[in-house]
# Entry
Amino acid sequence: MGTFLKHHRWITPLALLAPGLLWLLVFYLYPALQMFMASFWSGSLATGFTFSLSNWTNYPDAVSTYAPIYLRSVLYAGAATVTTFLIAYPLAYTIAFKGGRFKNLLLFLVVAPFFTSFLLRTVSWKIILSDSGPVLGPLKAIGILPQQFHVLASPMAVIAGITYAFLPFMTLPIYVALEKVDFRLVEAAKDLYAGPWRPGGAIVGAIVGGVLMAVLGFVFNTSPLAFAIVGAVVGAVLFHFRVSESFVRVTFPLSISGVFAGGLLTFIPAIGDYVNAELLGGPNTSMIGNVIQAKFLTENDYPSASALSFVMMFGVLIVVAIYAKILGTEELSAAAARA
Amino acid sequence: MAEIEVRLVDVTKRFGDFVAVDAINLEVRNGEFFSLLGPSGCGKTTTLRMIGGFEEPTHGLIELSGQDVTWLPPYRRNVNTVFQNYALFPHLTLGENIAFGLRRRNVKADEIKKRVADALELVQLTGYEDRKPGQISGGQAQRVALARALINRPAVLLLDEPLGALDLKLRKQMQVELKRIQQEVGITFIYVTHDQEEAMTMSDRIAVMNKGHYEQLAGPAELYERPKTRFVAGFLGVSNLLPVKADGNADAHAVLRLPDGTAARAPRALMNGHTGPVALGVRPEKIRLKAPADEVGGQYNRLEGVVRDASYIGVSTQYIVELRDQRRITVFEQNVERATKAELWAPGEKVVMTWLPEHSFVVPDEGVVEQVGIAAVE
Ligand SMILES: Nc1ncnc2c1ncn2[C@@H]1O[C@H](COP(=O)(O)OP(=O)(O)OP(=O)(O)O)[C@@H](O)[C@H]1O
Ligand SMILES: [Mg+2]
# Structure
């Protein structure tokens, strides 16, 4: 046996991979193939479906009809990924470097929402954000917000819902990457004259703060410019005093792998998500997931649903490939430090 | 006298109740190779980190080139550190690692390029600028860390056991190289080590630290020949220490009487400042062994004993000689007069140990250990 294995070294990795491969074959490849076939069907549930390669037109049909919704899905998922990152990074950083003996407790709190069902959490957000719910109700009662003001059924509600739902997926990989950063490297950077990040901190802070507040201004339908200015000033001051050059040149570049993983883990499920758009959104905020879900389960239009799914899958693959090209290489962390 | 580059005044560092550095006063001269030597946990790293700015003293004052820097952050001090684990940035090439400090100071690109090339040449790594830290050996990483610090031309370079991770042979080689580089660039080095030999071969002056303070600060030869405390006597090399009582003077010598009444002499000046009980010390290689019948000049101290053990080491032989009161003395003898094993003194033989009074030293005696530093023989 021993000599047999010695002469057939390829067997060991194959044996180790076998369970996973089998799993993928049965539960991923087979259904995917099935669905791929379905995307070349024509007909309906009542009349029965027939397969024909000439039905490739299902693809252009799906794309041309739903192009705006695809675009919206990418925008929402992208925006949610960015906001998730902006919240998760400081969170992960604080836990990793300032958590002390509360580290495990804090990490537990990050994943604690997972102990409740995804659906239930989203429903409770629907209640919290409802037009006369516990947040908006009192604000309207004392006249801070106009009576017709609403959060639900707006893009922000959907993006915020997705952000909330995937926050742990972003936080944990970033935490893991930060945790591994050797603090002595940060000391070495400080030793080599890395002080406050000047003037980069103020500039980046102004941009981040300005953009975030401008978006908020749009959502609340008040003056986005005033919001943007306040945001820019606060962001500039905050970044100037809190973001050091050792962070920009060392800590952040060394944690990029975590950002990359977190970004993928957030963006990919977010783009296909339909629960948030369904519960927190309105007719004008539906995402591609909602369309596919309706086609599959309500309209029983399997060919269109399958074609839409495949387009989404390839779309995600392309986006991820571009993203990986930009963010996924080790050159990037070096470039970040070099800039 | 050269000007003072680094001055520590009453510098104390507490971690909670624990005093890691205890009111140290220190002056390091410009251009000097200065070592902090001491056993593990004595506060060497903490002292260095306070000079570098990574740790704030609980109280006291730190001056660099005459400027009070006690509360300045590391990036505003004109010192650089070579960390024990090198702390090279893994995501940057060696060239970028070395240029890091200059970039932060907005030095022009073409000057950076030139200085990086010079720095690489100084540490004999020309042509390595595009490698990553993961692609070089420990010794090379050590040189890069050195280049990365030296390129900034700091007033003081701090080195925390920079050779600790290298094997013995490479260590010896790097010791020579470090010394060469230090002389070439003329920068003040403060060097932390727990290896007495390393400190002795490289340093101009050494502060021997113990439990948060230093016991003696002197050049290597003086530390070895005239240790001022038991601790120093034991930490640097091997010492024989005998409890003695002062018994007046004879000419330029103080007379010191051993418990069994034998008299030994030491230079009178060495008795200055000793008020309590003292111990007489002598290094093992300073002692000559004679047969009881041999003629011994009157200028020598003499002590009788019986050989208990002889270990032939090749270059020398280590004897353990027992005195009448059962104290044991270590003697190293070059294998010259008695070169072969058969000619060595044999256990059981009666011998007379002789040495010059000038080779004696005197330390305050708390009267516990008779002989210290045996473990330091390697
Ligand atoms: N951050 C800290 N918190 C608490 N105690 C500390 C801290 N840093 C150092 N100490 C303690 O201070 C003492 C001196 O530490 P230091 O690192 O200066 O020793 P050292 O002389 O460099 O020893 P070694 O040769 O082992 O490196 C040690 O007893 C150590 O446990
Ligand atoms: Mg140390």
